[in-house]
UniProtKB/TrEMBL annotation:
The keyword Disulfide bond does not apply. Keywords: ATP-binding, Hydrolase, Nucleotide-binding, Protease. GO terms for biological process: cellular response to heat; proteolysis. It holds the Pfam family AAA_2. This is ATP-dependent Clp protease ATP-binding subunit ClpA. GO terms for cellular component: cytoplasm. PANTHER family: ATP-DEPENDENT CLP PROTEASE (PTHR11638), ATP-DEPENDENT CLP PROTEASE ATP-BINDING SUBUNIT CLPA (PTHR11638:SF111). InterPro entries: ATPase_AAA_core, Clp_ATPase_C, ClpA/B, ClpA_ClpB, P-loop_NTPase. GO terms for molecular function: ATP binding; ATP hydrolysis activity; peptidase activity. Residues 134-223 form the Clp ATPase C-terminal domain.
Amino acid sequence: MSEYQEKHTVSRLIGAPPGYVGYEEGGLLTDAIRKTPHCVLLLDEIEKAHPDIYNVLLQIMDYAVLTDNNGKKADFRNVILIMTSNAGAREVGRVLIGFDSRNIDRSAMTKEVERIFSPEFRNRLDDIVVFNHINEDMALLIAKKVINQFKEKLKAKNIDLKVTARCYKWIAQKGLSSVYGAREILRFVQDKIKTYFVDEVLFGELSKGGTAVIDVADGEIKITNRTKGDD
């Protein structure tokens, strides 16, 4: 929600006020809900938005209705509202004494949430869920997803990418970070794998297609190319 940091940007959700450009177009949020009344509405990093947005959300959570600047109502009765926040992210590294290191200091994070969000706003939430660090199993799933997406892109270039099981596991272990979360895995795959294929696909052995096998040896990524002529 960082695009709604300024006070005037919040009006985009319900439409510009009279006299402003786009007044007759309606609001981004109200129009979207009218088109898709049964949906899950996800607001990412809600704490980055201007505080005025909470007034809009309070109206939604209280009455399940939001009226745009044209007087048209959007019905939120069948909308599931989910908001994510990095509130308390600084506390992620703190470990509760006597507990598993994978568990974070929930009480400290809750205090941070209470500091950022007003009591009337928190009182209208059904629940506040605090997530632990990602573990190795989750990191492995993320690594596989990221690489599988890259595989699909290479297929369009007539390149078959194969990754060994131990390489997946190694990437998950190296990219696992309790501080940076999944983004560290994305950076790791970008640096160690994707960067390699830029020159190979454009000017190298794989410029006309082929097969690439990714493995790990001596603590480093090893990529072996096999062109169509080698088959």
